[in-house]
Specification:
Elements: H1 11-31, H2 33-48, H3 59-73
Helix pairs in contact: 1-2, 1-3, 2-3
C-alpha cells in the first residue's frame, strides 16, 4: 500500500509531497538515507515556496517523508541534518 497522506492541507499537496517521498525512497535504496533525506528536504523547501504548499516544510510533513525515506533505505540519518 502506498502512503497518500503526508499532512498537507489538500489532496494536491499530498500528491506533490508523495512524489518527493517516492523519489527520496528510490534514491535511498541506491544511495542511503543521508543523501536521500537531504534531497527530500531540498525538494520540500522548493515546494513550500509555491502558492498553496507553504506547509510542505512543517515538521509533521517532514516527519512523514523522513519515515518513508529511512524505511526504504533500511538505515537512519539525523532528522535535522
Amino acid at each position: 500500500m502506498t502512503k497518500t497522506n503526508f499532512g498537507m492541507f489538500t489532496d494536491e499537496g499530498n500528491y506533490m509531497v508523495g512524489r518527493i517521498a517516492t523519489a527520496g525512497a528510490t534514491l535511498a535504496t541506491a544511495d542511503g538515507a543521508e543523501n536521500a533525506w537531504r534531497f527530500a528536504q531540498r525538494e520540500l523547501s522548493k515546494l513550500a515556496t509555491a502558492d498553496g504548499f507553504g506547509e510542505a516544510t512543517d515538521t509533521a510533513v517532514r516527519e512523514e517523508v523522513y519515515d518513508v525515506v529511512v524505511n526504504a533505505a533500511e538505515d537512519h540519518t539525523n532528522f535535522y541534518s
